[in-house]
What does this fold into?
Amino acid sequence: MSNPDAAIHLEHVSRHYKMGEASVRAVDDVTLSVAANEFLALLGSSGSGKSTLLNLIAGLDRPTAGSILANGQTLAALSPLDLARYRRNTIGMIFQSFNLLPRMTLEENVELPLRLAEVERSERAGRVNEALERVRLTHRVGHRPSELSGGEQQRVAIARALVNRPKILLADEPTGNLDSATGEAILSLLRDLQTQLGMTIVMVTHERPLAERFADRLATMGDGKLLGTSPARTGAAQ
Amino acid sequence: MKPQDLTDLALRNLREAILRNALTTLGVAVGVASFVAMLSLGVGLQQLASKRLSQSGLFDTIFVTPKNNFRGMGRPQREVESDKPPRALDDDARHELEKLPNVIEVYPQVRFFTEVRFNNKPYATVVGGMPESSRNSGAFDGMQGNFFSSPTANEAILQIEFAKDLSDKPATLVGQELTLRYAERQAIPAADSDASSGAAEPSGGFSVVPKELRLKIVGIVETEPAAGYGGYGNARLLMPLETASTLRAAQVNDLRDIVRGTATTKTTYPSLSVRAKSPSLVEALETSIKNLGFNAFSLLDASKSLRTFFSVFDLLLGIFGSLALAVATLGIVNTLVMAILERRREIGVLKALGAADSDVQQLFFVEAGVMGLLGGIVGVGFGWLLGRAITFGTNVYLKRQNLNPIELSSVPWWLVIAALIFAVLVSLAAGLYPASRAAKLNPVDALRYE
It folds into this structure.
């Protein structure tokens, strides 16, 4: 099911780990396409390999076998430096534990990807402000992450992920540390951003009801294998 | 990342673990301080030594003697010139030497063996004439009493050992008088200038008349400066050169000239000292003097080996000084490796946000470099203070011993620059391993790590 128009295309992707004598197949022969502007939820129990798959798409890890095509680039062909550039410019990532740098203020956290991308200083303030406006957090710029609520921290993380205007947003259990109301608000925000900015979103989660409400499509994994995909947004359609 | 952002982030990281990084930086500072202090002592001692030596006149002075044929005795004579009578070192020669370029002054070595009477007791000793220029040479800096009041004064400065011979309490001698008994050379007009008397006969000669001169003791000095090469060894009684010259005391070469048959009514000098403008001009000057037909030699070679000695000495001090810096290096390695463990997650986040391995590596590298630079700056200050403290301590000791203070340590600008560069380079080297380890950190593991 090769699909060159897809934002992300995985072809027989495997990722094996050596753990002592045994080899663990974290991702086992997964073939999957994600269309441009699609919101895909990766579901599965813990240890099913969904986070590993996300890391492979993010270019943080390389597959043992198979190939990954993302935004027109074959990741296997990229040098480590080009892979870093790919993460910087094409991918935005958010995490369950937000992963904001605790020593930096909110705006400094958001500014970090701009520094890495060597964006001119004069341009940065505007970009940071724009990203914070999208997540409606401009009133808390001077604060440090520890002074914010979980939901606010995740919004900062989203702003940080967006600031380099990525084509693909990868979310690893973004609601895992949040209460259900906040989690819903976050997913609703992601959904809005996806439509506004025309991004492709791949979200790892184990909360099927939320995924069904906000994602376009669900992909379920178990034991490293892709068990199947199904359309979602049953709730959203109502 | 741009250098400015890199430095910005590095400084922020250093500020966050302020206590630990400050202690590490202090370790570097102590290392640099010991390096600077050691080298400043070496440089200071070297400057002290070369200052004393150049003041002593040993290295800018050429000792000129007439060409005699002593060395021809045991060897085949190679030089045609040696068949001719050697050129006399007389006033003509002196004027000629004075006219050579880069000559500051030419003065004769007046040095004679004689008897001194003090408290009606005779003492045999060697008298030496001191040129007026030696007043400022520094050689008389630590003396008791004063330098001669004028270049023609009937005054004497005693060498300390001689002063001890004269009195149990040498210090009380200053202001007292002694009597110099010497043999004055009086020229005899040529008895017979007939050609028939034969070429081998001397055309003139002199008689020796005993004389006396009363001298006032004005000072006592440790050693004779620029102890001459004139024959009798160190002079123990110094008097103004002009006073000594007017005595026309019979000198060793007078007798030699008579024996050799070259004696004339003119004054000849056993040797002349020619002072060059600077030690670097000595070599060329020496050659031109030799071309005039005299023997000339200087102590330039000795100063060369002295410089070599001090280079080795400085090197050794530098090595000892850098040992502390080597220990400080381990501190940097330790601090940065600890920082990797602590900032594992942060490194993972940076990589997830698109930081290349080189960005992470440079960040750690800059942190190490900043610690090195700050440690270097503080260390140079510490080292300078340490040098001052050692100088101060030494001078307190010297003062108790009634000696003049000295400048023991010296921190020239090149040492400051060298210490800073050294500190930064050593710190960067210390940062190599932690930085590459941080760069190689697997972001997936780093992000999973709680």
Summary: The longest strand of chain B covers residues 205-221.
